[in-house]
Amino acid sequence: MTMLRAESVTLGYARNPVVHDVTLDITEGGVGLIGESGSGKTTLARAFLGLLTPMSGNIWYGDQTLKKSDLRKFRKDVQPVFQAEALDPRMRVGTSIAEALPRAARSRVTELLEQVGLDPDLATRRPHQLSGGQRQRVVIARALAVGPRLLILDEPTSALDVTVQARILDLLASLDTERLLITHNLAVVERLCRTSHVLFAGRVVESGPTGDLLAAPAHPYTLALRDAVPKLGGDPPQAKGRTEAVPAATGCAYRLRCPLAVPECERPPAPRDVQGRQVACHRAEDVLGVT
Ligand code: SF4
């Protein structure tokens, strides 16, 4: 079932587009948006949260566009989980969670702390008195407070050390709530997302079942990300050679970094169906041949 849909969405800031004509669905089973810094994944997440209005195209929530839907219900159903630094340092943990709850449900703070694996006694502490992993659990508890259908998680574990990351991922995997996960780390989507979309320079270059993308990438950029998979807690993969994208009008945006580029790549590749996934690459079959 589709919960959110971006339809031909172009997004940007001060009239400069950074996401170009993207169409994708947020479906059940977890969805990953994968790409390096500047790929447009966080901008797309902001649009899915209703924080950024598309320059063109629409975000659909069920059968209504976000512009027309009941925004109060939408904000209850779709909750962001950012990095733990977003917690107010002056506020006690219990107050911070209670603030997100309806007045009649404030006694649920204990239940929510237990749900995310924290000792309820931590409710009286301030964020700086907690470890990084505990703070991230508090952020998740806050997001769960209103009973959302979908969590939008932006690099929820990247600031944590490896063992703590693994425990937070276990927690997220155990929740009933659906998730859209934004990350540079393929090791994370593998655990939490049935479907993934790989973004490069504001365009979706490959979409499909996460297992297929990891087992046999069909786009050279997905292949480069997969082969640079950091261990949980590692740094984002570093690009080799030139790092700038090429404007689409002059061809494939990945052309200057692509080891498989040929003269045909001076023509922008349109997304097409290749072995059960959508790929924007003239040489997807060749990439599959080497994976
Ligand atoms: S279209 Fe060409 S340049 Fe772009 S990713 Fe495919 S092979 Fe590389």
UniProtKB/TrEMBL annotation:
<dbReference type="InterPro" id="IPR013563">
    <property type="entry name" value="Oligopep_ABC_C"/>
</dbReference>
<keyword id="KW-0067">ATP-binding</keyword>
<comment type="similarity">
    <text>Belongs to the ABC transporter superfamily.</text>
</comment>
<protein>
    <submittedName>
        <fullName>Peptide/nickel transport system ATP-binding protein</fullName>
    </submittedName>
</protein>
<dbReference type="InterPro" id="IPR003593">
    <property type="entry name" value="AAA+_ATPase"/>
</dbReference>
<dbReference type="InterPro" id="IPR017871">
    <property type="entry name" value="ABC_transporter-like_CS"/>
</dbReference>
<dbReference type="Pfam" id="PF08352">
    <property type="entry name" value="oligo_HPY"/>
</dbReference>
<dbReference type="GO" id="GO:0016887">
    <property type="term" value="F:ATP hydrolysis activity"/>
</dbReference>
<dbReference type="InterPro" id="IPR003439">
    <property type="entry name" value="ABC_transporter-like_ATP-bd"/>
</dbReference>
<dbReference type="InterPro" id="IPR027417">
    <property type="entry name" value="P-loop_NTPase"/>
</dbReference>
<dbReference type="GO" id="GO:0015833">
    <property type="term" value="P:peptide transport"/>
</dbReference>
<dbReference type="InterPro" id="IPR050319">
    <property type="entry name" value="ABC_transp_ATP-bind"/>
</dbReference>
<dbReference type="Pfam" id="PF00005">
    <property type="entry name" value="ABC_tran"/>
</dbReference>
<feature type="domain" description="ABC transporter">
    <location>
        <begin position="4"/>
        <end position="226"/>
    </location>
</feature>
<keyword id="KW-0813">Transport</keyword>
<dbReference type="GO" id="GO:0055085">
    <property type="term" value="P:transmembrane transport"/>
</dbReference>
<dbReference type="GO" id="GO:0005524">
    <property type="term" value="F:ATP binding"/>
</dbReference>
<keyword id="KW-0547">Nucleotide-binding</keyword>
